[in-house]
Every structure is written in structure tokens, then in C-alpha cells.
Amino acid sequence: MRVNPIRPARLGTIAVFALAGLLFWVSFSVSGGSNIRTDDSLLQMSDLIRERDRDNARLEADAAELRAEVDALTKRESGADPAGSERLARAEDAAGLTELTGDALTVTLTDAPPDAVPLLPGIPDPLPNDLVIHQQDLQAVVNALWAGGAEGIQVMDQRLISTSAVRCVGNTLILQGQLYSPPYTVTAVGDRDALRAALDEDPVIQNYRAYVDAYGLGWKVEENEDLTLAAYNGSTALHYAGPTE
Description:
coiled coil; alpha+beta; DUF881
């Protein structure tokens, strides 16, 4: 009796089933019998983040109450000394701990459309990084406004103080524990002509505005009258690294 040879197609089928069996065995060994494709771990992480957010909100509310008590006690103690009270008021104003009202300039920066194309002849097609706001763009606006004599600056809804740091991860702004997405607004109270001149003269902003013309990044400067910047109400404690034990 002749034995029919095994056809290549049949060999391929056997190999596929053998590989599938090997994959199932490896998957079972790695997972220990549990479902490794479940989203349970992500859901648990999401629940943890929400829980931490609630804790942070409660702690921030408690801290705000304590700061208000400290401020009240400080002002009561300094009330007996008019000169001391005046010095305290000037220090709080300079530190950004009180509201500030006056003529202002507001700068708005916005990402270009993701499908942006060159708007000028001879300009190459944009790379993804050409179409988004970067940390140096925001920092350049803030630094120029300070250099132009700004009495106070607010980024989004956050008043800046001497320890504020404008940082971005990708095109997401991280400022004083809060996350923001574009469009970004930077508002400064001060002499509007001097502020505008400082923006126009800054070389980093000039480079940014070249991309505005080339690819459509957003840039808008608006003037405001009697605009009020909120007082900074976060922690003023300094944090620094220490040696590990």
C-alpha cells in the first residue's frame, strides 16, 4: 500500500496549530491563569488617581483655611505698628499675594491645525514639532513681559510669583500643580506700550512669529483696561532635594 506524502499545505496547517498551542501555553504560564488582556489594572489606576485628586482637593482646602488664619493673625499683630503694616502690605503686593488691577496686555498662543501646510512659497512641509506651542515660546512671552516692566503676570488662571516655573510636557502646560492645554493666555498688568515693545523686540518671539506666518501658529495680542489679576493663593514654601537615608 502506498503512503500518500504530506502536502506542503498540510504541513503549514500543522505548524500553525502547533504555534497557536505554544502561544496559549506561554500566555497561561505568564498570567498564572488570570486574564492578561483585562483592563482591571487600568481601572484600578484610574480609581487611585481619582482618590488622590479628592485627597489633594481636601488638603488644599484645609491649607487655604490655615493660610487665611495666618494672614489674619499677621495683620492683627502688625496693626499695632502702622509702619510695619505698611511694609507688610508692600511686601505682599510685590510678592503677588494681593489682587492687582490696571491696564493690561493679553497674549494668546495657539497650536496650528494638525493638517497645516506651508502658507508662504518656498517653505518646507511642517514637522509635528513645528505646529505646537513649546515651553520656550511661553517662557519667552513671560520673560519679555517682565522685561517690559510688568507689575504682575498671570498665565491662564494662575498668578505668577518669584518661584513659579512655566514647564511643558509635550504641548501640555504644567503650572503650580495644574495641567493646561492650548490655547494659552498670558496677561500682564503694566504700561501697554512698553509691554508691546518688549514683545516685538524679543528674538525668541520673533522666531516664533516666523512660524506663525509660515504654518499658522496662533498669536494674538489684546489690550485691556482696568483688568484685575487674582492674588496668588498657593503655597509659598520652598521644596528642595535632600540626601537619601
